[in-house]
Amino acid sequence: LFEYNGYAPNPEWKNIKEQVPLTAYSTDLFGARAKQWIMDQRKSARKTGKPFFLYLAFPAPHGSLTVPGTPYPSGGGVKGGLQWVKKNGTESANTAFGPKAEKDKDTYIYPDNSRFPNEVAKRHSTMIRRVDDVVADLIHLLKDLKIDNNTMIVFTSDNGPHNEGGADMKHQHGAQNPQFFKSYGMMDGIKRDCWEGGMRVPTLVRWPARIPKGQVSLQPGQFHDWLATLADAAGVPVPARSDGVSLMPTLTGHADKQKPGIVYTEYNHGSKTPGYKDFLGEHKGAQRGQQQIVFVDGLKGLRMGVKDADKDFMIFDTLKDPQESKDLAASKPELQARMKAAALSNRRASHPSKTVFDTALVPAVEAKGVPGLKWSLYEGEFPWVPDFRQMKAPAVSHGVTQAPSVKMNGPRKRGVELTGYVNVPADGAYTFYLTTDANKGSKAFVRLHGMELIDADKVYHPGTEVSSDLGEENNPVYLKAGQHPIRIGYVGTAGSGSAVTLKWKGPNLPKQEIPVSAFSHSPDGK
User: Fold this and answer.
1) Which of 91, 188, 256, 431 could form a disulfide with 283 if both were Cys (CB 3.0 to 4.6 A apart)?
2) What are phi and psi of 428, to 5 degrees?
3) What does residue 234 show for φ and ψ, rounded to 5 degrees?
């Protein structure tokens, strides 16, 4: 762990083997350590044959406008560029050592960035250039190791540009001004806005062996899609715990096979959208407050200053109108209702309640079902409960069960997905409970609509009861009376006792097993 400002490691932190010198620049430090780690992994891979995964999150660029102390080292890869060096009882990037390291830190500006008319722009652009250099150095390394062709690189960011101050406890350089480089592009909004400029960020993906060159996709996705994508790329099941869908079809040129995902955001901040001259008039100075975004049918719903969960969404076609200049809400009343339902059904309430959405009742769906839940049986080794919808191998058998369980005879490990509806008898707050059989390795995961309902997967002990409180006492789910889609995933060792038991507690309803009559499914598969 290192401080965000680019230099001072805390000597009290114990997760570094030796003290890092105070002259280390964070981008160089992370880059050099990443290079050394990859080289170490490749040595190990000669024996194990295992691939590697590296999550490299650079601290810069950020609010502190701290720059390096030296030019980027020449060359790159195994022998050039950044290198991990141990010297005088410390270890760090090679740029942290030298007779002028302490004197010159926080001084280097890339020569072609010195033309900018203010110190803030010079520093901000230099920080970004440094990240560019490290990424180029890493690609050089992969080529030297002859693994670049079959290594997937994903480069992205977490939010739009910011205008926060640049203090680093020692200097005050001022705030980076997004207007100077027009970092929000053709959109309005910056960090903390739910306008596109604050939320939409570019993503670059490089994998020569699998991804064709020159592709551009405007498919909306969200960060949770990357867990699913990387699992898919690694050839392991997408976890049911992930809200995402694999983007591999889109990346590999098969966008027609891309499964739709969930794009949902809520963010609360008491400030306003800045009044930049190239922003639309109605966006300038817009009060943020409680903001919420949901995508339905490829269109974006956005509402700000929400104090009532029934407030209407503004609706935008962000592919054709990235500046969000034309609100389509008046012409799409049916979509408005679906967006409100999606906004409530894809999230879980927090406890204690923090938003107006937490106690709003999730709408039921119109469904004419027949008794029982559908089940699909899969064979294989499952280290976690998979999202069976994204399984590559098809189910080996199907059927209908009246209760949320399937008996699996035989010694093999298998997985079962049960789908359908649960009929909620009255409006109100509900808590759900799940217990699996006590067979070693039994796990389960339940979703209601798109929300996570019960996690009996991670750190679960077979045969024990877990609830939908998600670890927070008295954190119920608020539901309208009627049919609610339910999806139950189960994995375990086959045996006559393989099962899950579901209970609930609700308005005038003591804790009890959910009756068989409450479960149904659509016979036509819809």
Assistant:
1) 188
2) 145, -170
3) -80, -5
